Amino acid sequence: MSVTLKDIARKVGYSVTTVSRALNDYDDVSQETKQLIKRVAQEVGYHPHVIAQSLQRRRTNTVGFIVPATDRYLSDPYFLELLAGIGDGAASCDFDLLVSTCKPMDTKERVVYERMVKGRRVDGIVVARTRCNDERIAYLMSEGFPLIAFGRTASEQDFPYLDVDGEEGVCEAVKYLIGLGHRRIGFITPSMYLMFAEHRLAGYKRALQDNGLELDPALVIEGNLTQSGGYQRMEQLLDLEEPPTAVVTGNDLMAFGAMEAAQERGLVVGRDVAVIGFDDVPLAAHFHPTLTTIRQPIYDIGKMLSQMLIKIIKGENLAQRQIILQPELVVRESSGVG
Q1: pLDDT tens digits, one per residue of 31-54
Q2: Which of 169, 144, 175, 179 has the alpha carbon at shortest distance from 159?
Q3: What confidence category does residue 69 fall into, taking pLDDT thresholds of 50, 70 and 90?
Q4: Is 5-48 assigned to CATH 3.40.50.970?
Q5: Buried-state track 43-82, b at ≥16 Cβ within 10 A, e below 16
Q6: Closest Cα to residue 124, out of 148, 155, 101, 107?
Q7: 62-164+298-325: same fold as 5-48?
Q8: Phi/psi at 161 (nearest 5 deg)?
Q9: Using CA atoms, how far apart are residues 230 and 251, in angstroms rounded to an integer?
Q10: What does the pLDDT read at residue 51?
Q11: pLDDT for 259
Q12: Which DSSP category does 243 fall into?
C-alpha cells in the first residue's frame, strides 16, 4: 500500500495541508518543520503523485531539449556529454528531461518547437548551438516561454545564456602553434550560420594579426562539425600547392577526421602536421595520437544550463543571467612538442 500525506501527517502531528506545503517548499512553513516532514516522508517511503502535482502547479516538472543534429546524435560524443549534464542537472532539481531531435534549419524545426510549447509538454527549453540570427530563440521569446541558451546570437535580444569564449580559445591555440614555429596554419571552421563559428574564426584572425601574419583565405575552409567533414576538408587543405603545417578545427570530431586524412597520406600527426581541436570530448585523450584541444566543460555546462532554466521556471532570480566561461588549451601529442 502506498504512503499518503495523511500517513505522514499522523506521524509528525501536523495537518495534511502543512505536510503538503512543506514537501513543496512553500515559504510559510519553517525550515525546521520542513526538515522534519521531509525526513519522515523519506523514512516511510513516500513518493509524490507526479501527475496530481503537475495539475496543481500547472507544471510538468520537465525541461525540453531539441538536439540540433545533422547526423546520428547519439554517436556524437559532444551531444552525449551535453545531454548527460542537462539530464543530471534536471534530476538534481527533481525534474525530468524530454529529448527530441531535428536537423538544424530544417523546415520542420519550428513545428517541433511548437509541439513542445503549445502542447505544454515541458516547462522550459534548452537551446544549443545558437545561430547568428536564431529563429528558435525569437519564437520562444515571442511566446514568453522559459528558455536558456548555450551560446549567444548577433541580435540585440536579451535572453539568459551560458557561453564559452571561443574567440579567446582559438586565439590561444593559434598563438601556441605560432610559438612552435608554424606560419601556415589552416582553420576548418564550423558552419558559418552558427554564432560560435563567428567567434572562433575571429580568434583565428586575431592571433594571425597579433603576430604579423597575413590571412590566406585558402587556409580557411568551412566544415560541418562531423568526422567525415573534417576528413574531407583536411584533404582539400593538403591538396593546396602550399599546404598548411598545422590545422585548427572548430570541434574535436572534425579534428579526428583531419588526423585520419593526414595519416592516410603517410603524414605523422604531431611531427609532419599539427592538429588542434575544440571541446575536449572524452575520446580526445584516447585517440591516436592524443588530441591537443581547447577544453570546454561540456558536461558541467549542460548541468548548469538545466539548473539555471529550472530557476527561471520557478520564478527565482539568477545570480547571473548571462555567463561566459573561459576555455583551456590542453596540449597533447597531436600538436607536437612545445
Answers
A1: 899 899 889 988 888 876 544 554
A2: 144
A3: confident
A4: no
A5: eeebeeeeeebeeeeebbbbbbbbbbbebebeebbbbbbb
A6: 148
A7: no
A8: -150, 165
A9: 9
A10: 46
A11: 98
A12: -
- pLDDT for position 55: 45
Average pLDDT, rounded, for the chain? 92
Q: Which fold has domain 62-164+298-325?
A: Rossmann fold (3.40.50)
- What average pLDDT does this structure show over 114-134? 93
Q: How far apart are CA 1 and CA 155, in angstroms?
A: 56
* Distance (Å, whole) CA 258 – CA 278: 13
Burial class from Cβ neighbours inside 10 Å (0-12, 13-18, 19+) for residue 303 reads buried
pLDDT of residue 266 exceeding 90, the answer is: yes
Q: Residue 201: is its pLDDT beyond 70? A: yes
CATH 3.30.160.160 fits 166-296+328-335, yes or no: no
Bridge partners of residue 124, in order along the sequence? 63
Domain ranges of the chain: 5-48, 62-164+298-325, 166-296+328-335
For 290, other C-beta atoms within 10 Å of its C-beta total 17
Pick from 1-15, 50-64, 255-269: least confident? 50-64
Q: Tally Cβ neighbours within 10 Å of residue 277.
A: 32
